[in-house]
Amino acid sequence: MITGRPSRTFRRSGGRAAQDPAAGRLGRLRLGRADRDKYPRTVSRLRLVRVALATVAAVLVLALVATAVVAVVVVRRPLPEVSGELALPGLDADVTVTRDPRGVPTITATTTEDLFRAQGYVAAQDRFFEMDYRRHVTSGRLSELVGENEDALAADKVIRTFGWRRVAEQEWDILDPSTRDALQAYADGVNAYLSTRDPSQVAVEYAVLGLRLHTPAPREWDPVDSLAWLKALAWDLRGNYDDELARAQTFASVQDVARVEQLFPAYADDVNAPILSADELATTATRTAATTELDLTDDGLQSALASAQEALDAVPHLVGDGAGVGSNSWVVDGRFTESGGPLLANDPHLGISAPGIWAQVALRCAEVTAQCPYDVSGFSNAGMPGVVIGHNADLAWGLTNMGADVTDFFLEKVEGDVTVRDGETAPVRERTETISVNGGEDVELTVRETVHGPIVSDVLGVDAVQDAPRPEDAPGRQLEVALAWTALQPGHTADALLAMARARDADDVAEVAALLEVPAQNIVFATTDGHIGYQAPGRIPVRSTVTGGAVPSDGTWPRPGWDSAYDWQGYVDPADMPRALDPAEGFVVAANQAVTPTGVGPFLTKDWDYGYRSQRIRTLLEERLATGEPLDVEDMAQIQADQRNPYAEALVPTLLELPIDDAFDDDGQELLRDWDLVSDTDSAAAAYFAAVWRTLLRLAFDDELPDDASPTGDSRWLEVVRRLVADPSSPWWDDRSTPGVVEGRDEILTRAMVSARRQLTTQLGRDAEDWRWGMMHVAEPEHPVLGGPSLPGLVRSFVNPSPLSVGGGSSIVDATAWDASTPSYAVTAAPSMRMVVDLGDLDASTWVTLTGTSGHPASVHYTDQFEEWATGRTFPWPFTRESTDADAKDRLTLVPAS
């Protein structure tokens, strides 16, 4: 049974929308797919890697089309055995692996070590290439996998500069012994799978790469490979570094701190409620603010910051980046539910890829004891033991990005091998990294670090920094940028993830939070005995108060590294982090908004999501609770699928007041008059409004902002425009590209509507009534290596799921984000999974993931959840032993090797 509401699904075909019948992976391989190169799209940081692989893929195409038999053998050879009996060295006893109709494994073992050994084996069966690609990225060895390529080498240089793997190696030594045992058992399981197979039996991607490059058998999996993956998670969910750089770079164009701050407005507690009210906080602390002396007009500073931005942009994003990355989560008290137990919902918003980020799994000890304490089901990351988000028999938990400010850029005065510190000098540490390039010469990289962290401005763009004008107070010295980031210190996140799977109550969650240092994630939780709660974790820097100067030094602007008064002063005590248990209103919503009211609790950041998703969820919950009708799982799923547009709520009333005299140009505006403000796939008004939104951002802001700072259209820009609508004569409305003319709000909004009508006429047709949001707003997951537009269409059709139309949009509860700074309306980030847990009846819970549980393009489980995901539907999620046994479609027994 599938639950949820249906919606129309389209695929692109020659630029028109058409019904897309369900098709198997091999069916799409034979028939091919419409050319998508003509459509604007957001391309990966690794686009040049794909260009380099185009020749490889073309050779594979010739091999595949030569004979259907060869094609079937090549693509199906890596598919795993899912029934019968297989020997797994190191097991103490038999392990059973059952799979449901969507290939989701339930692993049952008698010992913890056997459980994680089997999980490693099954993960390698399903997703080893994904794991291998990730570890090449996180260790700065991408060039070793894909060969000579400019972007791959740039990524390797930056990640070696960060030293992700070096930190992971240090982390290994401080982990709890039980965590090390789990990581080692997982690695042993992976390696047992690899030891009996050549690369072509492991993944079809190795067959493609092997046509051009020497592709040796993959290295054995090391437990540190798993820990390094946590650094990628921490990087993509790190908080406000983009805003910090953007403030300084925007100032270079605007030259006015107050006007810059108008583009980064303070969170409005009176508009969108924080997660916790002051009354709900268990502890409070006061925040500090600081100001600093920086010459923001200095060309050397701006050049250094631009170099830092260029370097950081080279890092591949494995789970998502920038606008749209966030999450929804909420929990409702059992006194308001049909089952009598709490309901918990979660849908993390991350980048879309094929396969999707999450791998569903259940891990079960045959008998739950202190020695084997796991009975947990949920969403895992291939390459890591355990479950990241899910539930056990006693507790369910969801995670959303807290957005805490855990990075700072320190401006360093460098001369040779020293920096200035408090009028004296401090050494700059150096190390040499050797980057192996498959088929090419090794590359040596000198990495430099100050007391604050690695110097990122000289990974790329060194010459620009060295040649830049220097500050007056730093004669003879070079200005550079170092990155301070909490994840560059070894921590206990791996301990936290495994401890979360064993947690039973609020006290256990608090202990987990003290270990979950990076990435800082809001935790909402509920228990089968009726409690609900919230807990903020994370290693949060404490910044000192320094007075005097032009800009605040609270982490929102770069900091002077030459004055130790601006150094971090330690970290917030975990006991002081915000938390709540059983709040009086009976629910908690955590959707990336501010955690506490302004000025209450420890200072976490100023750069929150602005809370439009969270407020809409609160409103829907309040409305449903006011009816007195009990809530159930389906009610929660309907909220997850809500597509009401907050941008439209802020703008449409004003747009409808403006006269458009031309009857043709007025057609778009007419769509808005009867619009219900819901951005569903079939909405013509939603399509038109999206074009208006993008155009007004360009007209209002692009004339004054740097080229690389065009508005992305996320919640920050919604808040900026919402405030500007109330100020029709604000200087931001004036188009500086029209000298002698001073435009106001109404002129810009009218231009935007007329321009949008003409754009969509060209793109979708003359009749505005025929437009559809789903024709423009398409989810197109791509394979990270073989999925780009430079690859032959036959290969792309095989590894990339057919695009699907979706509703929703940025800052909508159904958060299928798109980037307004690009020409495309395609989805850039989206709910990477959806789950609803009923703590009163765990077998009534539901889930779905973006694409499917398999990483093999030839598997039916590569995309068998994608259409349901796109239309807001979910699958049953059985948990009890009886229910999972009844749902089992395949059964594999792993036995100890003789």
From TrEMBL:
Catalytic machinery residues: 327 (nucleophile)
Cofactor needs: Ca(2+)
GO BP annotations, alphabetical order: antibiotic biosynthetic process
Keywords from the UniProt entry: Calcium, Hydrolase, Membrane, Metal-binding, Transmembrane, Transmembrane helix, Zymogen
CDD domains, sorted: Ntn_PGA_like
The record's free-text note on cofactor binding: Binds 1 Ca(2+) ion per dimer.
Name of a matching Pfam family: Penicil_amidase
Name of the protein this chain belongs to: Peptidase S45 penicillin amidase
Gene3D superfamilies: 1.10.1400.10, 2.30.120.10, Glutamine Phosphoribosylpyrophosphate, subunit 1, domain 1, Penicillin Amidohydrolase, domain 1
Protein species of origin: Cellulomonas fimi (strain ATCC 484 / DSM 20113 / JCM 1341 / CCUG 24087 / LMG 16345 / NBRC 15513 / NCIMB 8980 / NCTC 7547 / NRS-133)
GO MF annotations, alphabetized: hydrolase activity, acting on carbon-nitrogen (but not peptide) bonds, in linear amides; metal ion binding
Similarity comment: Belongs to the peptidase S45 family.
Classification via PANTHER family: ACYL-HOMOSERINE LACTONE ACYLASE QUIP (PTHR34218:SF4), PEPTIDASE S45 PENICILLIN AMIDASE (PTHR34218)
Region named Disordered: 1-21
Residues the record lists as binding Ca(2+): 244, 405, 408
Highest taxon of source: Bacteria
Membrane-spanning ranges: 48-75
